[in-house]
Design a protein that fits this description.
Blueprint (H helix, E strand, L loop, with lengths): L1 E6 L6 E4 L4 H14 L2 E5 L5 E5 L3 E7 L13
Antiparallel strand pairs: 1-2, 1-5, 3-4
């Protein structure tokens, strides 16, 4: 699943491909915000992203994204 993290005063958002379920991700974000520490997510390749919770602007969760290969025709 794709997770987009908005960071205050940053022109671009962070995008992480996570294997967590939406419920697990929501719980992890809630716990980090409540404890006022750092939100740490690990992507599918094992890389970590750490954002201080005070700098979080938003966390957006998207379902699995499939990108078409080749040409597509919309009817």
């Amino acid at each position: 699943m794709e997770v987009k993290i908005g960071v205050q005063h940053a022109p671009r958002e962070l995008v992480v491909e996570s294997e967590l379920s939406p419920e697990e991700l929501a719980k992890q974000v809630e716990e980090a915000v409540k404890s006022e520490t750092v939100l740490q997510l690990t992507d599918k390749k094992g890389s970590s992203v750490m954002v201080p919770t005070g700098a979080l602007a938003y966390v957006e969760v998207s379902g699995k994204t499939t990108r078409p290969v080749g040409f597509t025709v919309d009817e």
